[in-house]
């Protein structure tokens, strides 16, 4: 898969092939992003004791805030609420039936996108007008000052990064809590891994890259969650030339949707596919097989892969070493067209 196809984005994300720079490399996550995620996660989880939490809501806020803080740290508090409301419309629209009539989610999605673009354009204008002595240390500032991209490209870049890391990370975080609750043996093994890390560190010492890399079982839990929940339904490609695949002709220009859900539940690839079995991923080779498309494949492989896994792993670290929890309702998780719990996934949280 992949060779004669370009990656395709949807109509809400306008970037063409090869536009996204491969910036979310391990060193970026290690040196700049992981310390921020660690700091954010402690704060995020600091006061859950005794509370009833809607994990879906909290994961959504967490994933969006983590992405948004990296991008526009300076104006975060002043525009957050309005921006997120419009962004949510856009995300829902992009996952809905493409009927562009007033009143449909699809229509609202385009309106949401227009407002998001407007807000970002105003921010860029303000940043350009600010004196060079005013320094900000966020992604927007680097993109604007770097000068390699025009304003429209900067805006598209930001929307793409925010969009890609939002729904994926938040859904994975919610589903990982559900699967761990339902599989106590996995939870105990995961907890032991994280207490092992805490025992090696001073009280309150943040997680570092070596800690993250040592989270073998946690990585397996995240990969199994992505498989079983099918957080991403599939991948889009466009045939750049005629291609014959298993005797079928795919003409040049056709769009292909690789439906990964089928692959995720293939009993030959994953014995007992409906069982949550993170131990299967301890065979390191499984992650590098060419049918393992959790993060896509080829030239369009997700550039936020390590960032996404590191975010969910950091969340799990502080969550399982601080709290235990019981589910108190909301177990009607819908898997299609997106994984969600229409009534929220509520848990009661208590300090360990
Ligand atoms: C659990 C978390 C995540 C999952 C499961 C996930 C999954 C995916 C998948 C399946 C693709 C399509 C790849 C392809 O077409 O071959 C993708 C693309 C992408 N992801 Fe992620 N992702 C995650 C987190 C993130 C994060 C945190 C970011 C933000 C930096 C991000 C940024 C992107 C971008 C920009 C693309 C488009 C790449 C391109 O078309 O060249 N992702 N992701």
Commentary on this structure:
There is one protein chain. The protein has 352 residues and is mostly helical. The protein has a single domain (5-351), classed as Cytochrome P450 (Cytochrome p450). The protein has helices at 26-44, 55-71, 76-94, 105-129, 139-146, 151-182, 184-199, 209-214, 216-229, 260-264, 285-288, 305-322, and strands spanning 5-7, 52-54, 234-239, 243-245, 248-250, 255-259, 323-327, 346-351. Strands 1-3-6 form a three-stranded antiparallel sheet. Helix 2 runs antiparallel to helix 6 and helix 4 (105-129) packs across helix 6 (151-182). The longest helix is centred in the middle third of the chain and has 32 residues, at 151-182. The radius of gyration is 21 Å and the shape is globular. The termini are far apart.
Give me a quick take on this structure.
The chain is built from twelve helices and eight strands.
Q: How would you describe this structure in keywords?
A:
three-stranded antiparallel sheet; oxidoreductase activity, acting on paired donors, with incorporation or reduction of molecular oxygen, reduced flavin or flavoprotein as one donor, and incorporation of one atom of oxygen; 10% strand; Cytochrome p450; mainly alpha; single chain; 12 helices; disordered N terminus; binds protoporphyrin IX containing FE; heme; transmembrane helix; 352 residues; heme binding; 8 strands; Cyt_P450_CS; globular
Estimated radius of gyration:
21 Å
Termini, distance in Å?
Answer: 47 Å
CATH homology superfamily name: Cytochrome P450
The major pleated sheet works out as: 3 strands, antiparallel
CATH classification, class level? Mainly Alpha
User: Structural class, please?
Assistant: mainly alpha
Looking at the structure, the CATH topology is Cytochrome p450
The helix content is 40-55%
Unreliable segments (pLDDT under 50, ≥5 consecutive)? Answer: 1-7, 15-24
Q: How many domains in all?
A: 1
Task: Tally the helices.
Answer: 12
**What is the element string, with H for helices and E for strands?**
EHEHHHHHHHHEEEEHHHEE
The main sheet orders its strands as 1-3-6
Number-wise, the strands total 8
Q: What is the overall pLDDT average?
A: 88
Task: Enumerate the distinct ligands.
Answer: protoporphyrin IX containing FE
Organism: Salvia splendens
Binding site for heme: 302
Keywords: Heme, Iron, Membrane, Metal-binding, Monooxygenase, Oxidoreductase, Transmembrane, Transmembrane helix
InterPro entries: Cyt_P450, Cyt_P450_CS, Cyt_P450_E_grp-I, Cyt_P450_sf
